[in-house]
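Q: May I have one protein plus its fold?
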Amino acid sequence: MSASDRPVVFRNGLVLTMDDAHTVLPGADVLVVGDRIAEVGIGLTAPDDALEIDATDGILMPGMIDTHRHLWQTAMRGYGADWTLTQYFVWYYLESGKLFRPEDVYAGNLLGAIEAIDAGVTTTVDWSHGLQTPEHADAAVDALEAVDGRFVLAYGNIQQGPWEWATSPEFRDFHRRRIDGGKLAGFQLAFDVTGDPAFPERAAFEVARELGAPVTTHAGVWGATNDDGIRLMHENGFMTPSTVYVHAATLTHDSYNRIAATGGSVSVSTESEQSAGQGYPPTWQLRHHDIPVSLSMDTSVWWSGDLFSAMRSTLGADRSREHLEAHAKQETITHCHLRAEQVVEWATRGGARALGMDTTIGALTPGRQADVVLIKNDASPAMFPILNPHGHVVFQAQRADVHTVLVAGRVVKRDGRLVGVDLAAARARVAATIDHLRETMGEQAWQRGMNPDIPETAILENPYQYTEWDAGSAQWKH
C-alpha cells in the first residue's frame, strides 16, 4: 500500500480526534502528507499541490477497526438470516463449509474487504477459519492484498483441530512465504479452546508463542466454549495482553477476572450475540471488570458489515440490560453509564489497542498513520444538524454517509464512490461461488439451508374470550 502522491487536506470539518484528551475540534482541518497525519487544527497552511476536500457539515474521525470478521463468508451474504448458532455450526462446520474452494475464499475475502473500506472500516481482522489447505490460505491473502485497506489475517481451520493444522509443515511454509515480510498489517492464530481437560490446544499456543503471533479465540460462547477453556489457558500461562477473546458472553466473574488480570481484551459482536445466542452482549460485565473492548461484525452470512450497526446495537444492548436489571429491583435508571463517545472509541482506539497498534492508528493526531474517514452527506436530511457528534455517529449516520476514506494517506473512497475498485469483477467472482454451491448442494438442500424450520408457537390461554355481541345489552356474551 502506498501513500497518495499528493498531500490531502480536509477543510472545515468537525474533528473527532479520539486522542487521550477526547479533543473535539469544530471547523477544523486535517492535513495528510505521505502516509501520516501532519497537522490537525484550524486554518492550516497546506502545500500548494494538496488535494483539498471540503468537510463542511461533516464529521472527520479515525478509520474504524473491526477485530473479528469472517470475510470468507461474505459470498453467502444474508443466507443465514434466520439461523441460530447451531444451524451455523451444522452448515459451515459439518456440512457445506467444506465445499468452499480456494477461489471461493478469494471471492468472499475480496468482496468483504471492499465492503469494509466502503463503510469506513480501514482495519479489519479477517478471522479466516475456512483455510482447509495452504491453497485456501494463499487465496485469502491474495484477496486481502488486492484491496487498499489494512488487514490482519487470523489463520484458522474449522475442519481440523488447531493442534493439527498449526503444527503442520504446510502451515509453517505458508507463514514463511506469505507472512514474514508480507504486506498484511498483522497476523494472528484463530482457534477455540473447548475445555477438554487434556488441553490439546497447548500445541497451537506454543506455535503462536514461537511465531510471536497473538491468539484470537471465541470464548464464552453458550454450548461451545466456557470457563474451563479460560481456566486452562490461564493455568498454562497462555493468557497474554495480546489475546483477543471474541464474544465472551457467558463467562463467570472468575473468568472475567483472569482476562482483566492478564491484560487481554474482548471483541464484542453485539448483533451476533443478540441474534445467534452466544449469550447476552457482555459490555455490562466488561465495564464492571474494567476489561478493554473492541467491536466487530462477525459475519455477513447473518448481519450487516459495518460498524455503525455495531456501535448502535452495542449501546442499545448495554442500556437495555441496565434498565432491565433496575426494573427488576423496582428502580429507575436516571443516568446511562455507557455513552455514545465510549462506543465510538471502542470502534476506533479500542480496536487499535486490541491489535497492539495504538501508537499507529485509531486517532487523528500528528504522526499517526493517516486512516481518515469523512462522514458527510449533503443529500441526507439526517446529516443536519450535527449537535452531539459522537451521538450522531452512533445513532444517525450509516455507511451511505461515508463520503471519503483514506488508508495510510491513500484515497480509497471519495465523494461517496470507491476509488480504483473493480466492483463488477468482485461481484462476478461471488456469483460464481454461489453457482458452485447451489449446483454442488442441489437446489433442495440449498433452499432448506436458507429456510430452517419454524418452531410451533404455543398460544397462551386467554380468559377474556368473547364470542357473541349482544346488541340489546351492548355487551359481549361468553
